[in-house]
Design brief:
The chain is an alpha/beta fold and 315 residues long. It has one domain. It is 40% helix and 16% strand. The chain has a 5-stranded antiparallel beta sheet with strand order 1-2-7-8-9. Strands 3-4 form a two-stranded parallel ribbon. Helix 2 packs across helix 3. The protein is extended.
Length: 315
């Protein structure tokens, strides 16, 4: 083979190598450009989804304001799950839940470190939900009472525990503003909080809505007095019958409770006057906005009276 032929062969190899290298660089550049483009598109879609989710919260507030009757029951329009409602280039899903059926744990104790009627109800709720004895349930209630004690110069039984944590911290000395704050309160670990979360709240007035209260809360609501002074009127089967009744028939006024078989007029003895109602006061709104592959979730708590936004969390 002549030297000229060898040179042509080497030149061809070099050309092929350069073409392969350029092709690799072009593919890498194209892939990088595609990734960047997808990132921009995702950011764009998530930005749009944010405003759709935020708009969903406002739509839910309008729905609640349009509900002007004198009772609140999940069979009403606000209680329906609204899924995949088209909005612009995406869609929104709304879920509205009445929180008034839950026990407000801010009424467990007062600012002076004294237990309130909610103390005994909370103890009973813990016994029912957590399946613990009265000693363990009272320990949780006592921790809340101590957490609320406003005079930080007064040492409570739990202060030493908080000082031993890493890092150490002090009790709030005021009522709770969010359920997640319970992680700081002695005894409320993740397991306890997860179990109690569907039954408790920290917003709104103390009365519960009998149209939405779980069986466990209805049972605990009988315990408005100290142990030994409690007249237990209803048991679990009674409350199961009540809940089954309201699944198809809303309580439009408290007197309707007497229509439930086995309940009758005894409801007014079991639950202290003014502690139960048929109306909701505070609601939780979950709004999911979606645009293509981008999504954002908004969670809000609103007071129905006055249409007041109490909290808003975007995810």
């Amino acid at each position: 083979m002549s030297p000229l032929t060898n040179e042509k062969g080497m030149a061809l190899l070099i050309v092929l190598a350069v073409v392969a290298l350029l092709s690799s660089l072009l593919i890498e550049f194209s892939f990088s450009t595609l990734v960047d483009l997808r990132s921009v598109e995702t950011f764009r879609d998530r930005s749009k989804a944010y405003y759709i989710a935020r708009g969903g919260v406002e739509a839910a507030r309008i729905i609640l304001q349009e509900d002007r009757n004198q009772f609140d029951h999940p069979s009403e329009f606000w209680g329906e799950l609204l899924a995949g409602i088209p909005v612009g280039e995406g869609d929104v899903s709304l879920k509205i839940e009445d929180l008034s059926g839950r026990l407000n744990i801010n009424f467990v104790g007062d600012a002076r470190g004294n237990p309130l009627p909610g103390y005994h109800r909370f103890v009973a709720l813990c016994e029912e939900v957590l399946q613990v004895d009265s000693v363990a349930a009272r320990a949780l209630a006592d921790a809340l009472v101590n957490w609320f004690h406003a005079d930080l110069a007064v040492m409570t039984a739990d202060d030493a525990y908080y000082n031993r944590q890493t890092p150490p911290y002090s009790r709030r000395g005021a009522k709770l503003t969010a359920l997640d704050e319970l992680h700081l309160v002695r005894g409320f670990d993740e397991e306890v909080l997860t179990a109690l979360r569907p039954f408790i709240r920290v917003v709104g007035a103390e009365p519960i809505n009998v149209n939405t209260a779980p069986v466990e809360v209805l049972l605990a609501w009988q315990h408005s007095a100290a142990a030994g002074n409690v007249a237990i009127i209803f048991d679990r089967p009674d409350m199961d019958v009540l809940v089954q009744y309201r699944e198809t028939t809303a309580f439009k006024e408290l007197a309707d409770l007497a229509l439930v078989e086995g309940i009758g007029p005894r409801w007014s003895t079991a639950w202290s006057q003014g502690s139960v109602t048929v109306q909701g006061a505070v609601y939780q709104i979950e709004s999911l906005g979606r645009v293509n592959q981008g999504s954002r979730r908004a969670q809000a708590v609103v007071a129905k009276q006055g249409n007041i936004l109490l909290s808003l969390k975007m995810e």
